[in-house]
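<instruction>
Derive structure tokens from the sequence
<data>
Labelled lines for chain and fold:
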Amino acid sequence: MVADTDGASTWRKSSWSGSGENCLEAARTGDSVIVRDSKNPAGPSLAFTRAEWKRFLASVKASARDV
């Protein structure tokens, strides 16, 4: 779902990103987590429920252990 970023909390990106510009940024807003491209902060954003976001993060963490 394309998200409205009004009311988003502080945008954050992974500490693993360093000074890289090709990153995703995430922010909380109400019961959702909004994700955007750090290179284009005014561009489209996607919204996920907190449950969807937690499942995504768990999947990423599990994949990182397999590497």
Remarks:
- The longest helix spans residues 50-66.
- The chain has a mean pLDDT of 81.
